[in-house]
Structure to design on (477 residues):
């Protein structure tokens, strides 16, 4: 199973650490980089403003994703240097950094040939020292080079890690970093196994995606169907936008956070749930949303569930192998009172399918067109809760992750709200939830997870259908 958790759950081997970070010459080139006309993507804009305000308030916010896996043998430093530099030079999200000029975000663009990440030996470290090093040496969001890479050598294998700011990465990007760097290293390394080499596939531009995103929404007006749909959803919530249904305590006193991962379904339960969803006229995702909706009803009594689920907005064949922040939100509305699971699953699937293209139209675009009062909506008073579903079986090379000890880890910080990832693996289905690290939030999360587990168990235990074909879906990230 793929590890997904808090960085404190990452257990790299004790040993000598080598870090790849931008050279002084690369930093100088970044400082002198030309100004670009292209604004950041909407996802990046939100993150940059959060970083700007967080810095002003001297408050740490979640920003880093650490991706790690093991490689057999002694690391060929020259080969890894070439692999890391090739990755950063060909993925152009890394080529931009952003600054604020009188309240306007300005892009600076460094040329790929000016990028040079050099290895630096950091000496022997134990796991705790390694984790601290990874968190404290990766530059901040508002600096160029907010990404570092490294290896920790053990007797007969080494652990590779990438520590990347969310500005440049989403959930699927973790898999793409693996594809890029692991395959390149295997091809370049003197220890590469015999046989045909694997060349990383062609990569397109994240800046092109940003330009498309901006162009696609630029001409939208209050009369555009997509804008009307967002407004209708906002009015329907009446200010109670999708958020965690239980108390979270004092989320201002500390920005410390935690992650909890729990098995929802074992292998047999996962297959049964898939069959039940199919028989109900929904996909696995529809069933996941239905269980979340029924858990919300169980806890709050609300007869209509409003949720946000993540969707990857990469264009197949164009952005498929591009690292960057592509994930965006889809609003779903599901009636729950007195409904059976098949009815709720069908309603959830129908709502998602009808709204999925709204992932390409960020809610921020709606608020650029008119004020909330003019739109007749109430803005949320709580931080939004995001539910993501990902089928790991559909990700290229994911089949080798278990044997390589692949994992992704958060940086133990919280923005004060809740996010949830439900992931289907070959052998099970799990839920990972991030939350503020305080007593009240922990109690609420425990209660919520227990209720969610009960919803999934009810579906599998009370419904019996013939096995369905293993179609799977991979709609969110």
């Amino acid at each position: 199973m793929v590890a997904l958790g808090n960085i404190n759950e990452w257990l790299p081997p004790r040993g000598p650490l080598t870090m790849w970070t931008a050279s002084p010459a690369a930093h100088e080139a970044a400082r002198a980089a030309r100004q670009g006309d292209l604004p950041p993507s909407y996802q990046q804009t939100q993150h940059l403003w959060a970083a700007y305000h967080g810095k002003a308030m001297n408050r740490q916010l979640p920003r880093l994703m650490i991706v790690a896996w093991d490689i057999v043998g002694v690391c060929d430093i020259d080969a890894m240097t070439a692999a890391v530099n090739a990755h950063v030079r060909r993925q152009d999200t890394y080529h931009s950094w952003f600054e604020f000029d009188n309240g306007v975000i300005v892009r600076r663009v460094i040329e790929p040939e000016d990028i040079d990440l050099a290895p630096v030996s950091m000496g022997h470290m134990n796991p705790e020292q390694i984790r601290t090093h990874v968190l404290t040496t990766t530059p901040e969001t508002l600096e160029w080079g907010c990404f570092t890479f490294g290896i920790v050598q053990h007797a007969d294998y080494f652990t590779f890690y990438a520590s990347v700011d969310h500005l440049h990465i989403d959930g699927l990007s973790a898999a793409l970093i693996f594809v890029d760097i692991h395959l390149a290293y295997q091809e370049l390394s003197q220890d590469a196994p015999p046989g045909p080499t694997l060349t990383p596939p062609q990569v397109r531009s994240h800046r092109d995606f940003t330009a498309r995103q901006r162009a696609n929404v630029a001409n939208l007006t209050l009369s555009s169907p997509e804008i009307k749909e967002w407004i209708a959803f906002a009015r329907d919530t009446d200010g109670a936008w999708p958020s965690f249904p239980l108390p979270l305590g004092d989320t201002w006193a500390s920005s410390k956070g935690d992650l909890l991962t729990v098995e929802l379904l074992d292998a047999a339960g996962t297959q049964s749930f898939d069959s039940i969803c199919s028989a109900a006229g929904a996909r696995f995702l529809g069933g996941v949303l239905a269980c979340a909706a029924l858990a919300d009803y169980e806890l709050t009594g609300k007869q209509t569930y409003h949720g946000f689920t993540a969707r990857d907005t990469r264009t197949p064949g164009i952005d498929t192998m591009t690292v960057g922040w592509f994930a965006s939100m889809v609003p779903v509305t599901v009636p729950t009172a007195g409904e059976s699971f098949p009815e709720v699953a069908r309603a959830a699937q129908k709502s998602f399918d009808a709204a999925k293209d709204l992932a390409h139209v960020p809610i921020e675009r709606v608020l650029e067109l008119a004020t909330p009062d003019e739109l007749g909506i109430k803005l949320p008073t709580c931080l939004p809760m995001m539910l993501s579903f990902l089928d790991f079986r559909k990700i290229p090379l994911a089949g080798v992750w278990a044997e390589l000890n692949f994992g992704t880890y958060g940086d133990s910080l919280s923005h004060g709200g809740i996010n949830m990832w439900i992931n289907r693996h070959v052998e099970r289905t799990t839920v990972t939830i991030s939350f503020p690290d305080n007593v009240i939030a922990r109690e609420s999360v425990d209660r919520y997870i227990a209720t969610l587990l009960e919803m999934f168990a009810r579906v599998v235990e009370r419904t019996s259908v013939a096995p369905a074909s293993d179609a799977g879906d991979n709609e969110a990230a």
In short: The radius of gyration is 22 Å. DSSP finds 13 helices and 16 strands in the chain. Residues 194-198, 466-472 have pLDDT under 50 and may be disordered.
